[in-house]
Design brief:
- The structure is a homodimer.
- The first copy, chain A, is 71% helix and 0% strand.
- Chain A is mainly α.
- The longest helix of chain A has 27 residues.
- Chain A has 2 domains: 44 residues, Orthogonal Bundle (Arc Repressor Mutant, subunit A), CATH 1.10.10; 154 residues, Tetracycline Repressor, domain 2 (Orthogonal Bundle).
- Chain A contains 11 helices and no strands.
- Chains A and B meet through helix 8, helix 9 and helix 10 of A and helix 8, helix 9 and helix 10 of B.
- The structure holds a DNA duplex.
DNA sequence: GTCTATATTTTGATAGAC
DNA sequence: GTCTATCAAAATATAGAC
């Protein structure tokens, strides 16, 4: 059932995750698939195209999860919770691909880099919009939405770097802890809204 | 004043940060220093020793900053604030080195990896101790101190990946936003302490 | 689709002159 | 301390048989 193209992708994901993109050779990927390295070039133009394919698929699926989560939520807080939950869960459940997608951008050609960064920017923009709406509504502490979005996104993204599927806590348990931590951090009413509103409520001026 | 050994280290930090450890060659480092690649080997045993030196120095300085910050604070909250502030500020101000230290561990020999991981574990342990004390005292929401420590540490560490020294916000401004976000996330009294205390107050069982 | 064989380049590292 | 010269190994990628 599994095509060789699929097998190559899976082996590459495994090796790129374990050793890194630059430290992984075409020969190793071929060995993992039980074929010779020349055969790889029948399925992919080269190592970089393999990396690009992995990243593109990952970003597409990540975005789809966000859209689905947001569509099912009807107020600012539940939308934010859905966004955080999707982001952290996706990064734990598809750990290898998400880790590659966030750490191997330097392996892409300029054209492919531009394409993946565009996908990432679109995703971030939606995320920042949810945060910005919450700040405008006073549900979240007024702060710099862009920096806060980076904080939340990278926080979850880094989960792919330390998570162990056979570890003490399940992905669900971690997602619940993270969701609580992030939402508390966002909430207004605390003593830590320590900057004047007119200075920091400026979500997207680059 | 600057010795060649120092110059080599600086050039290597620059290139490892920009291109990654595996994608950087000894020739490139030599070119950046204005010498031939063979001369590098007079100062360092090889590329890996260069990486190890960078990482070791970075971890030592990071630890020194934490110790100094904690020594100047006298209660749980201010100790936590000092720990977070040191961590985020260090990762922004010494962006290149900290980025390398957190993303190029796979480039180390097993012996050197063990050494750096030991330094990192010691650092994490101190950090987790501050969090654990806050939870015991009821100052922080009772939660899994280990996971929360990973959340906070990776959150700040990732700052080295997106920070731009010439960007809209200074390292100080970002540090203040992060400190507020993290402390709010930690505080008890919110509605998000959603797990039984006896289950989650279990800081260090691996 | 996969193979063998090979071209080309580059790598990390060493020897020995100066 | 830095150089020239060189080595051996490994890399990506291609040509052409089957």
């Amino acid at each position: 059932m599994a095509s060789m193209k699929h097998t190559i992708t899976d082996v590459a994901i495994d090796l790129f995750f374990k050793k890194g993109y630059f430290a992984t050779s075409i020969s190793e990927i071929a060995r993992g698939c039980g074929i010779r390295k020349a055969s790889i070039y029948y399925h992919f133009a080269g190592k970089e195209e393999l990396l690009f394919t992995i990243m593109q698929t990952t970003m597409k699926d990540l975005m789809a999860g966000l859209q689905a989560g947001l569509a099912a939520a009807d107020n600012t807080e539940s939308r934010m919770r859905a966004a955080v939950r999707n982001h952290i869960r996706f990064h734990l459940e598809r750990q290898k691909e998400t880790f590659i997608a966030s750490s191997e951008l330097r392996g892409l050609t300029p054209e492919h880099l531009e394409s993946v960064v565009a996908q990432r920017d679109e995703y971030e923009h939606i995320f920042q919009n949810v945060i910005g709406k919450g700040m405008e509504a006073g549900v979240f502490a007024c702060n710099d939405a862009k920096v806060i979005s980076y904080a939340i996104l990278t926080l979850c993204t880094a989960g792919a770097a330390w998570y162990r599927p056979d570890g003490r806590l399940s992905a669900d348990a971690i997602a619940e802890i993270y969701e609580g931590f992030v939402l508390r951090g966002l909430k207004s009413g605390g003593r830590d809204t320590n900057r004047p509103a007119e200075l920091v409520c400026d979500p997207w001026p680059i």
